[in-house]
Amino acid sequence: MYMLKVCRCCDAIVGELETDDSGIVGVDYALEVTGNVAYTLCSQCMQELDGSRLSYYQ
Ligand SMILES: [Zn+2]
Predict the structure, then answer these.
(1) Beta bridge partners of 38
(2) CA of 21 to the centre of ligand 1 (A)
């Protein structure tokens, strides 16, 4: 099965993902699969989230 990885924050296409019948190979923790789209965070939004989290706690 072939899936698109889409940033859940800015809707940018992050990449593509190939899975076998038994499920997703190489799932990362931020991944959330809906249909044949895997929502994740792009590196830019990941950085922004980390940054805002850091400044929140400072
Ligand atoms: Zn993004």
Answers:
(1) 5, 33
(2) 28
Helices and strands (H and E) in the chain: how many: 1, 4
Residue ranges of the domains in the chain? Answer: 2-57
CA of 40 to the centre of ligand 1 (A): 8
Q: How far is the CA of 27 from the centre of ligand 1 (A)?
A: 18
Cα 7 to averaged position of ligand 1 atoms, centre (Å): 5
pLDDT tens, position by position, for the chain (58 residues)? 788 999 999 999 999 988 766 555 555 566 788 888 999 889 999 888 888 766 655 5
Pick the closest to residue 14 from 24, 23, 3, 6 (CA basis).
6
